[in-house]
């Protein structure tokens, strides 16, 4: 058990929500970031408080540097930062080829999935690094198996954004390895969340399930279990590494 603060971007729904509940169950004080769905974030906070956990909801669109600064200021007021889960992420409309993509779409995916994650990590490192007087901590970056597969004819821009996250996990991990901070990634496979509906194909995960060696989609809880393991001391020798949690895909 730990009473440290964990900041989870996009903690209001899907994988982030499951990670918030799992972290709270292990004693973390959870900062639940959300982009616009306040009701969903408040529900996560209520569910945590109902089990005597501690959580606050903070609006933070990770495409906004101002929002990110406000998120970490709120976290500062809640306790000592021990972990960041860079979970917020989006896909553009599914089934769009690169020769059909608008600059606006590509920039939005990169701003949220890549720049947002790097800026959140910057704020976390400033607080957790022993170089800055911090006590160490962990950063977990949500990648995707799309980083390996490329997502042709689906959303190559999204896959490329997650490829960037994989490089970021390696590089930042090395940069802060001597400063008490571990950096790890997770590549989820097909997980049953609302992200597929956001891409215009609600049934995508279930449609592709037969292609998964384990023949099924994964649950948000199965990703959350990997997240809370990575932020725990049980993963004390894991850094600059990304774990596939994908049923073999
Ligand atoms: P989801 O169900 O669509 O939930 C997205 C979450 O991110 C929500 O809490 C949402 O907040 C938040 N969000 C969206 N845009 C944001 C922004 N601009 N700033 C801050 N927060 C934002 O997604 P998910 O499936 O749980 O995915 C979570 C992460 O796992 C993503 O990085 C995704 O790429 C990755 N992943 C998912 C799968 C999968 O199959 N589901 C597979 C591989 C990787 P609101 O509630 O306020 O909208």
From TrEMBL:
Belongs to the short-chain dehydrogenases/reductases (SDR) family. Residues 4-201 form the Ketoreductase domain. SMART domains: PKS_KR (SM00822). It comes from Bradyrhizobium jicamae. InterPro entries: KR_dom (IPR057326), NAD(P)-bd_dom_sf (IPR036291), Sc_DH/Rdtase_CS (IPR020904), SDR_fam (IPR002347). The keyword Oxidoreductase applies. It comes from the Bacteria. The keyword Repeat does not apply. This is SDR family oxidoreductase. Keywords: Oxidoreductase.
């Amino acid at each position: 058990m730990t009473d440290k603060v964990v900041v989870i971007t996009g903690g209001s729904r899907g994988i982030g929500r499951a990670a918030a509940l799992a972290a709270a169950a292990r004693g973390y004080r959870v900062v639940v970031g959300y982009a616009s769905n306040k009701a969903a974030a408040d529900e996560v906070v209520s569910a945590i408080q109902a089990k005597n956990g501690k959580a606050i909801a903070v609006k933070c669109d990770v495409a906004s540097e101002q929002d990110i600064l406000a998120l970490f200021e709120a976290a500062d007021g809640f306790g000592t930062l021990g972990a960041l889960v860079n979970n917020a992420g989006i896909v553009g409309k599914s089934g769009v080829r690169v020769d059909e993509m608008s600059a606006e779409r590509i920039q939005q995916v990169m701003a949220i999935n890549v720049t947002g994650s790097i800026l959140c990590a910057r704020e976390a490192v400033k607080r957790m690094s022993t170089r800055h007087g911090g006590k160490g901590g962990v950063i977990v970056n949500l990648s995707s198996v799309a980083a390996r597969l490329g997502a042709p004819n689906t959303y190559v821009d999204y896959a490329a954004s997650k490829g960037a996250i994989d490089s970021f996990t390696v590089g930042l991990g090395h940069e802060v390895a001597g400063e008490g901070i571990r950096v790890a990634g997770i590549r989820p496979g097909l997980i049953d969340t609302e992200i597929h509906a956001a891409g215009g194909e609600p049934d995508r995960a279930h449609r592709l399930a037969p292609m998964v060696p384990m023949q099924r989609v994964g649950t948000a809880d199965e990703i959350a279990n990997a997240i809370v393991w990575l932020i725990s001391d049980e993963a004390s020798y894991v850094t600059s590494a990304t774990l596939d949690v994908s049923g073999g895909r």
